[in-house]
Amino acid sequence: MSVALALDAGLALLVLCVAVWTIGAGPTFAAVVGFVAFGLLLALVWVRLAAVDVALTEAAIGSGVTGAVLIAAAARLRLTEAPSAAERPSATLRLAAVVLCVLVFAGLAGLVLYPANPAPTLAPAAAVHLPELDVGNAVTAVLLAYRSVDTLLEKVVLLLALVGVWSLAPDRFWGGAPGILRPARTDGALVLLGRLLPPIGIVVGVYILWVGAIAPGGAFQAGAILAAMWLLVMIAGLRDPPEIGHRWVRLLLVAGPAVFLAVGLAGFALPGGFLSYPAGHAKPLIIAIEAVLTLSIAVILGLLVAGPPERERRR
Amino acid sequence: MRVLLDIAMVLAVSAGAFFFLAGTVGLLRFPDSLTRLHALTKADNLGLGLVVLGLLPQADGYLAALKLVAVWLLAQLAGATVSQMIARTMRRGGQRA
User: Fold this and answer.
1) From first to last of its 97 residues, what are the pLDDT tens digits of chain B?
2) Residue A38 sits in which domain range?
3) Residues of A in contact with B84 (CB under 8 A)
4) Residue finishing a domain among A47, A79, A111
5) Residue A105 covered by a domain
6) Å from A191 to nearest chain B CA?
7) Global ipTM
8) Which residues contact A223 (CB under 8 A, 6 or more apart)?
9) pTM of the model
10) Looking at the 3D structure of chain A, how many domains does it have?
11) Best CA proximity match to A60, nearest among A224, A203, A217, A301
């Protein structure tokens, strides 16, 4: 017990130190590296809290995909970094930041010092209906059955984020291919990795999706892994990013949310409610929705990292 | 037999931890980026390999053991690729650090 406690305390201390270092780091790129390390350590914390689903998501999305987006952003900002370093936020802004930080700290301290007893939980209620859904993983049940409208909206938000990135494109490049970040010269080691890793990564991604019904895993994590493999292939220069005006790209982007919405609307006709599944068919429907969602999430995340189009569309 | 396996595990994992420690010391103490990279990758591959070797007898069946070995191989592949890329960038006169 005491060894585990010491390990946990060390881990918590490490997370705090990396967080402080990330905020204090000078160059943007160094801060991004700190952020990625912070995310991976945070994933370990979630594992220690027995929330493996959250840990997988944190490692894949919070650290991996967000880290890739931030590295691309840091590379684009490099030209303007030196002039902007001299700028300082106004006194009012800094004061507002201090007040907000103190409020958050006070709230957290209050929660830790005076915890509700017994702690409020919906876990028993979530577990009671698992047999009806035939889904073994309570997190998947929450995401795709109890609170499926949240998950549906979340996917729409992802699409909106991609539209936001695309809207940064100049008019003449609209519909063209994104200019993904690449090493200046083709790197043999990277090309080798780009050929070796994707077959393994695709198997792992499909496994994470499939196992999500009964164990930690699911569409978001699987989609992030597939996106990572696709990005690796593109960064290694083995395949070019697709033109965003292509019909199959658009189809793949909306396929997941569209299928989700169609199943939801069908719920009105059959069991009598938006996003309610017919009795006995919940599990196949959930797996089908997750499978299509995984593809869409992979394409959305990949294109989010690839950035706005930078080449003219080939006619 | 059980005791022997446990002793082997403790020895291998400790040796792995030692290599991680040595790699970290090298990372902090070596004078330039190439030697630091050398310390880091050698220690990571060997250290993680020894930890995995020590944990193999404790694994829950052949499949779990296979997963452990796969983790080691994938970490080696990623580490080797990244260190190659960093080293090449430096040889081409990229950032000095």
Assistant:
1) 788 888 989 999 999 999 999 998 998 998 888 888 888 887 888 899 999 999 998 888 899 999 999 999 999 999 889 888 888 888 887 554 4
2) 1-79
3) 187-189
4) A79
5) no
6) 9
7) 0.84
8) A205, A293, A294, A295, A296, A297, A298, A300, A301
9) 0.89
10) 2
11) A224
